[in-house]
Amino acid sequence: MRLSNILLMGTPGLYDGFDEEYVCPILDEDRVVDELENKMKEGGVIVDYHGCDFFPERWFHIVFVLQTDNSVLYTRLEKRGYSIKKLQDNVQCEIFQILYEEAMASYKPEIVHRLNLDQIIKWIEEWIKYNN
Domains (ranges, CATH) in the chain? Predict the structure, then answer.
């Protein structure tokens, strides 16, 4: 199987402006879907994004929602220099499992899985054990 890494950050025309409150670009979701459509048809593509409700269900065989401990998340975002509001909103999103709920509402529940770092490490170790 071929896996592709498609980097869209900085791609011209994919943004609608800039959010001053959160200090980040505003993504034009329709343009992103248009940009990815042909690449997704080829298969073997991993999409990494902090939301999913605008991606077509037909694109995915499996969806992983990565989760972390809130104290780890808080420290990580604080080190990035996030504003208090942006930091608190991100932690609340994790507490209330907003992205997991979004994924469950957007795709067939049987393809949506929650993972944390410990589970990912365990999976990698098992894969190495059985594939060497």
Answer: 15-131 (3.40.50.300)
